[in-house]
């Protein structure tokens, strides 16, 4: 109805119909106004919310905005020594490859001759250099013998490492894999690096083929690590996004103090956990609150670092009743987690009883802010999983170990943009599994890669 009709020309029935139509329209508009008013209030409330930062949300540190640092006053005097040692520079090498001795023969003032008795050692220091690295080419000439008696042909046996096939040795492949998977060097830059630093011409395709040849060794070692994980009592897990051929996938990590397993799958669901664990149900599971991480063990420890972050955001968003008290309680638990391994069982039980009593007092609060209400509802359901670590001295109160294992994946994703093939993602996961497991045995990444390519296991018997 664009305009009101002439009411004098309408009958009583027509006027009644017009009134009913207008009433229905008023009711519909009133309902719509109510919805829009609520939406406006919601948007206005969001405008008053604090910004999300890496300290109070899941925002990665790379996206956080850091304030400019204040100007530092000029240092007075020499720089102090680093933490843990006195000043004075680099320590001398235990064994020097070469020693150069400088002795004066005459006095610099009067030119009188100086004898050995006149000399004292004034200083001793090291100068460190790197020799030029060039490829060492070994040409193999293999002869075949033809027997005059039976007519057979016998090929000469070859020394280990000089088999026919690829011209590149295991050491070259290990170095290339180390640079690729630890330092995130792309194929193009890796090929250029090999040429400019070592004088070794190796194409991107040759690098790709070398990695594919080495993959079975890493798959075999990963299978052994996975078998060890499926006997573990404690498992910590987390996941992060990766890109494979332009599609979003997920890098899952499962780790504890003994082993690390990375797998890359297209799914972020609980089916990945079921596949990896293969029926094994550990005693303790440590993770965040993501639903796919729940229900895989007899007991569950929630990552307290994530909960502290959420409490901080709620407090910044205006909750002055629940979030500050809950944050203080979680900080008490985090302090205990740093030393609970050395406490007696009875002491740990007493600390947990005190924390539970304090939690009862916090849960009795009635927050009015919606963020505080959300947290109170959450901990009402999950409170039994907050202090599980006090019942098990081998369990941490956070999932920082998993976060650290996934950090190289995030860096790799940003530097390279992701993976071009599924086998490349699987190889990356296998290499990171081997490196993470080796690190727990004080073996560096390069030595772990080299040992795996040689067919040596990084796992101790057990």
User: What is the number of beta strands?
Assistant: 7
Biggest sheet strand order reads: 5-4-3-6-7
Order of helices and strands: HEEHHHEEEHEEHHHHHHH
Class of secondary structure makeup: alpha/beta
Radius of gyration (CA) equals 34 Å
Give helix % range: 40-55%
Poorly predicted ranges: none
Please, how many helices? 12
InterPro entries: Transposase-related (IPR052344), Transposase_IS66_central (IPR004291)
Organism: Dankookia rubra
Pfam families: DDE_Tnp_IS66
Region (Disordered): 47-88
Explain how this protein is built.
The protein is α/β, with parallel strands linked by helices and 462 residues long. Among the domains are: 210-298 and 428-453, no CATH class; 304-391. It is 43% helix and 9% strand. It has twelve helices and seven strands. The strands form two sheets. Strands 5-4-3-6-7 form a five-stranded mixed sheet. Strands 1-2 form a two-stranded antiparallel ribbon. Strand 4 (247-255) and strand 5 form a beta hairpin. Helix 2 (170-181) crosses helix 12 (445-453), helix 7 (323-337) packs antiparallel against helix 8 (345-363) and helix 11 (422-439) crosses helix 12. The model has no long low-confidence stretch (mean pLDDT 90).
